[in-house]
Write a structure and sequence with these properties.
The chain is mainly α. It has one domain (about 1-60, about 65-220). It has helices spanning about 1-15, 15-25, 30-55, 65-90, 95-100, 100-110, 120-130, 135-145, 150-165, 165-175, 180-220.
Length: about 220
């Protein structure tokens, strides 16, 4: 199950708005401070959302821990993954917005450029570029369906968020030691990601969706 969570988190990490925000922040005079605020605020927000979902839905009286409950959860999540992949493949705009493609990146770029960047701006940008979408909800659905207990659920939510924020965390580390290298690396990644992010998300959605459907169908 952890591998499925990691795959979904990797797809979430390919968000152009996040790359734009990171690249904007690393160009500031104090990039390490800006990035630290950005990462801390974003992680606090996304983890809190996951915590609320777990606490709300974790108390529903299902057949706790039964193989049927887990199988139904896997099948439902698998279908949603395949729907996401298909919608992205045929270019359905509402789902593309949920996947945070270039339209969202342009809005973030317009909102940050031309304004003085402060720590408050960085703190707001963290949650704004990591608003939980379908992939996060899929991951939470999987976590809840497995019912590993509150402790296990929190660990898996933490794993998802750590992978989701892997790029900003790595850039923060680079800013501490070599800000110029961090700027150059993020710029190159932003340029290359635009051509491949959609394809990667589609591949991950189909792979995880098929895996979940097969796993659920064989255990129900």
């Amino acid at each position: 199950m952890t591998l499925q969570i990691v795959l979904l988190a990797l797809a979430s990490a390919l968000r152009p708005p996040s790359l734009v925000a990171v690249y904007t922040l690393v160009r500031e005079q104090s990039p390490s401070r800006m990035m630290a605020v950005y990462v801390a605020a974003g992680l606090a927000f996304t983890f809190a959302v996951g915590l609320v979902v777990v606490l709300v839905f974790g108390g529903i009286a299902l057949q706790s821990g039964s193989s049927r409950t887990r199988a139904i959860g896997e099948i439902a999540a698998g279908i949603l993954c395949l729907v996401l992949g298909t919608a992205l493949a045929i270019g359905r705009e509402p789902v593309l917005r949920n996947a945070n493609t270039s339209g969202g990146a342009n809005r973030i770029r317009g909102g940050l450029q031309g304004h003085q960047i402060t720590t408050r701006t960085a703190a707001l940008a963290g949650p704004a570029t990591h608003i939980p979408g379908l992939l996060y909800l899929l991951a939470l659905d999987l976590i809840i369906s497995q019912e590993p207990g509150v402790g296990g659920e929190l660990v898996q939510i933490a794993i998802y968020n750590a992978v989701w924020f892997a790029l900003p965390i790595l850039v923060l580390a680079a800013c501490i030691f070599e800000p110029s290298a961090a700027r150059a690396g993020v710029q190159r990644l932003e340029r290359s990601l635009g051509a491949h992010a959609k394809s990667i998300v589609i591949i991950v959605a189909y792979a995880v969706g098929s895996w979940l459907l097969i796993s659920g169908a064989t255990t129900i």
